[in-house]
Amino acid sequence: MRRLVAWTLLVAGLACAVAGAALLTVFAPAERIDVTERRAEPGVAVVTAPGLLELSGPDVRVTATGASGTGVFVGVARAADATAWLADAERTTVTGVGGDLSDPAATTEVTGTGAAADPRTADIWLASRTGTGSVELTWPTASDGERRDAGGVVVLAATDGTAPAPAAVRLSWHAEGTAASHPAGVPLVVAGGVLALLGAVGVLLDPRRRAAGGRA
Fold first, then answer.
1. Bridge partners for 42 per DSSP
2. Is position 18 within any domain?
3. Does residue 180 lie within any of the structural domains?
4. CATH code of the domain covering residue 142
5. pLDDT tens sequence across 80-95
6. Does residue 208 sit in the same domain as residue 124?
7. For residue 153, how far is the Cα from the chain centroid?
8. Which residue, of 12, 60, 80, 156, is most buried by count of CB atoms within 10 Å of its CB?
9. Model-level pTM?
10. Where is the chain membrane-spanning (predicted)?
11. How many of the other CB atoms lie within 10 Å of CB of 78?
12. What domain range includes position 6?
């Protein structure tokens, strides 16, 4: 009976360790959390809710894509400044990220009814990029700490403030913490190692094994 228990512990431990290693490697989550907001009628701007940029990682990469040949603007501003600049302009607000992290989806709301001024003429931007067709901007979210008390920062994508905003806005974060690895991976490896060790000790100390060795 003791021998059976030892072998059971050994096999179960090895199985747990292999399963945990698989969760940490083969079935590990993606290195980045990517979410894209696509809307046929996004209004004149697409803007993130305060705090969303700090979802994960040391920075967030924002890519806005419009029609070929269309001017595209992406800027980062304090939330209060962006809200004041937008006023009643129609916009899509990305309020959060829902679904499983392996296939996340943006949660949004559309508000406002009017147009906005040309964002390229505003002086509220902490960082901005302009281009044609597609524009990418990387913002270091680690620098947002001092601005949290002031309501945080947001990113805004637009064209000229009157034409529709870029039809696709992608937010990409480097996965960190629980988003970067399967939560059961390490516990399975540790538990499997302990069980396998106990089983191996039991097999080596089995009286029948030692008796057979003595007769030899």
1. none
2. yes
3. no
4. 2.60.120
5. 999 999 999 999 999 9
6. no
7. 18
8. 156
9. 0.68
10. 184-205
11. 19
12. 2-27+185-215
Give the E-state strand segments of 79-166 in sequence order: 91-98, 105-111, 125-132, 134-139, 153-158
Best CA proximity match to 104, nearest among 41, 53, 37: 37
Residue with tokens 């990029």: 129
Number of folded domains in the chain?
Answer: 2
Same domain membership, residue 189 and residue 155: no
Shared domain check, 155 and 113: yes
Count of beta carbons in the 10 Å neighbourhood of residue 165 = 30
Look at residue 179 and tell me if it is in a domain. Answer: no
pLDDT digits over 123-164, tens only? 999 999 999 999 999 998 765 555 555 458 899 999 999 999
Whole-number Å distance between alpha carbons of 57 and 213: 57
Cβ pair 168, 37 in contact under 8 A: yes
Q: Identify whether the C-beta of residue 118 lies closer than 8 Å to the C-beta of residue 11.
A: no
Residue 88's Cα: distance from chain center in Å? Answer: 30
**Residue 89: closest CA among 114, 72, 65:** 114
